[in-house]
Amino acid sequence: MTGRPVAERVGKLARSGLFRLLAEGRGKEVIDLALGIPAAPTTPPGLIELACAALREGHNQYELPEGNAALRQRISAELSVPTDPDTELTITVGASEALTSAVLATINPGDEVIVFEPVYENFVSAIVLAGGVPRLVAMHAPDWRFDSTELRAAFGPRTKAIVVCTPNNPTGHLLTRPEFAEIARLCEQWNALVISDEIYASYVYDGTRHVSAAELPALRERSIVIGSLSKSHAVSGWRIGYLRASPALTHAMRRVHAAVCGGGPAPLQEAVARAAAEPGFLRPTENLGAQRDLVISIFDELGLRCLPPDGGCYTMADIRACTDEDCESFAYRLLRETGVMVAPGKFFYATEANGAHLVRIAFNRRLETLDEVRQRLSVYQAEDHHFTAR
């Protein structure tokens, strides 16, 4: 084919370097701490049986685009703010489709969308697909908070929305109510929306509490909350996510959702709806605090500097105390020489050099897996292959 058959927007999508890292580890006995694919908690066995039953009973055709009615009712009953399951909640094909539908329904070409950096790359890709312009605002180590002056400077007449993730991927920072209140004031001033990815809300530590964007009265009508069962119930392959928003925003997003995918998987929605009839099913009790503390201990011993995250299933670690390499070289060497895979921090920055001293480590793994990580790294250090504090 001659000419230019590929849309220009494709070239602007985020390019994940993680795929190269995964290819490097293929065929080896690798312990993957790079991706957030959950090995802890375990998938509820009863949920799998309910999915099999739903398939055998014939729940194999289209579901309503807005999602299984019983599932919407049960999710809405568990949310921290009153939510009408008929007009304010939509079941989506995972959180990624929820994000894309939310952005496509609200962002026009040329609209500016603020995102915090380091950033989960799909946020940038969704904005680009809509023709929007990402405006990056730094979160600063070691506590990964934004600077108020920098955030105010990012807002302006072209600002249509701000995308947040709380608990954050990749830093684990949990937005506090005062931080949300500051965001709310700026959104009111500039008539902007908040798109809040809250898929890690089940995992918070040290007595903290997750705050949803929708809990703030000032954001109730101008927030879109994204949720998912992928991490909390270890069913990332099922693609069960949801969108919570005002009726007007929900109506617009449902139109995009129906056009993009027609609806989520009917038998899997039915299975979750049945499981959720059991009180507490949508509020998993397993906490990843032990995994968090173990991972931090392991990599602190290696010479990295890890800040315990407030929530989620990742920690960002500073490698400068144990190596002069950049994060990608470090990650590849760690993979080749120990079989342990971590994610280079530069993959979460538009200007890669800003993250060259960082790696992201996922800890939603079984404790015995993390014990094996410790064993591998201890042997490596004992054999004097370095990675010790300088």
Radius of gyration: 21 Å
Q: How much strand?
A: 15-25%
| Separation, N- and C-terminal Cα atoms | 56 Å
Strand order of the largest sheet: 2-9-8-7-6-3-4-5
Shape designation: globular
Overall structural class, as computed from helix and strand content, comes to: alpha/beta
Low-confidence stretches: none
If classified by CATH, what would the architecture of the largest domain be?
Answer: 3-Layer(aba) Sandwich
Largest sheet: 8 strands, mixed
Please count the helical segments: 13
How many strands appear in the DSSP assignment?
A: 14
Please describe what this structure looks like.
By secondary structure, the protein is an alpha/beta fold. The chain folds into two domains: 128 residues, Aspartate Aminotransferase, domain 1; 231 residues, Type I PLP-dependent aspartate aminotransferase-like (Major domain) (Aspartate Aminotransferase, domain 2), CATH 3.40.640. Strand 3, helix 6 and strand 4 form a beta-alpha-beta unit. Helix 5 runs parallel beside helix 6 and helix 11 runs parallel beside helix 13.
